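LOG
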Amino acid sequence: MKKDSKFLVFLVLLAALCAILATAAAVLPTVGTETVLTSGTAVSSESDTVTISREEYEQLMKYQELEEILQIVENYYYQDVDVETMLQGAAAGLLAGIDDPYTFYYTPESYAEMWEDDEGEYAGVGIQIQADYSTGLCTIIRVFLDSPAQEAGLRRGDILVHVEDIDVTAANLQDAVDIMRGKVGTPVAIQVMRGDQLLDFSVNRAQITVNYVNSCMLDDQIGYISFYEFSGSCSEQFEKQYRDLESQGMKALIIDLRDNPGGWVNDAQKVADMFLGKGILATLEYRDGTKEYYRTYDDETDSTIPLVVIVNGSSASASEILAGALQDRERATIVGEQSYGKGIVQWVLDVGSSGAGMQLTIAQYFTPNNNVVHKVGISPDILVEMPEEEVSEMFELGDLSDTQLRTAYEYILTLVP
């Protein structure tokens, strides 16, 4: 969930400390600045005196130890250091101290890269990865069609072990992703665990265009839309492909949210608006107990078409918001396995003036019937576990040998008028 807010956080405070707290470390040389406590703030252009309020002084003193460390390093470390990189590391550490895997700092480079990903075009190998922060494992949940990864033989279900010289874990997955990006045509070494086998691949990077939505007719009545992620222009793609299926005579629709890790809540809201009248999509609850309601606003434009939604253990976040709302408001039948259980939402914020950013968990959300999602997930109406031999199978779009899709198809046939 994006919020166009500007926050002056840790980096700004440290920068202010460099100018104000000159006597922070007793073991270090002072720089001749005097701090005076008053009820206001003033800076004299003719002296080194800075006048600040007691409240401001006490706020700055919280960071005295970090300023002391910075001065010690700058003065005594045996080589020159990149202070900007140190400050970025300190900002990242500040957020890491919350111990929330969904709250973190973006360097200017990684922030720009994140928005590039959201647009769906980048130079890479063409895989989607899900990190499990409880086990540390990073699993490939999608190999893009016609991608270098597919050509090299990587599969859904493969666990990333090494990317070049990095031992891949959930904690350093971004570093591995950064390495897989690069110049088109150059190779990257990737090692995966497949079952009990370690397999090595050399994958040539290429320009990747992500298709967030794919669709087809399963027969002359049943439409099928596979929805991979709530990013970029996904909601527009969804509606366009939905209308195309309508023109082909669709009388019922299966929406496949398996392995969809979520994304922007606004996109889930736009898709829900196509099938739900005015009402609650999800309820957000903030730390102080206040609540905010995400709603659907349109009249039901497609209120009668039968819907089935497929989910699995990798359906998360915005996927669960959409599935939970369609289920609670009795608009769709959910088929598949218990979903992931990411029932919290984040802001993505610009930070400072260098192009950096941060992601911050700001609320927990609940379904329209006030059901808990976080660490619980959405329970399917029709439980269908994927057979072990199909878990890593790369099915063609709409392949009814896929057990979960076939079950959804057989059920929705009973709903067609």
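LOG (cont.) second protein
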Amino acid sequence: MIKLFEQFNNEQEIHDICKKYNIENYTINPDGSIDVVGNIDLSERNLKNIPLKFNKISGNFDCSINKLTTLEGCPKYVGGTFRCSHNKLTSLKGSPIIIEHDFYLSNNPISIIDSSIEVKITIRMSGTNFDDKIKNLSQDKLRILFEHGIDYDIFRKDGSINDSRLERLFKDFDL
């Protein structure tokens, strides 16, 4: 059984996990997180949790087609594309703060944005439980919503949308 990142006792355990998942070119930070120069592919591994605590990844990060219910342990910064499609995600907590390219979130039962994420290129979210009003937004509006929507308290716990706050968000950003 793989330990969650909070349970690591020493750097050797981190090295062992990196070896198991073919993670190279990494640096272990004082907090036990790792920075990686390159891509991380944890897709199709039947994972229920991210096996390490990532910090910065210079390339792509792929944890799609697993059984993840949380993004805890995902990198804070992704220099490429972030893929977490085809999981069991209902929350974005633990997701990257900055994604330099695309964000693939499709085919997850998620219906709310509960974390601020700056996505520089596109957001793909087909097959999610987001309201059609959200799914049909332009990419410009989606990027603003993902980055600032939590500040405007747009989503209610049940996934419904506070329309006046959504309108205010787009008005504030001239969209």
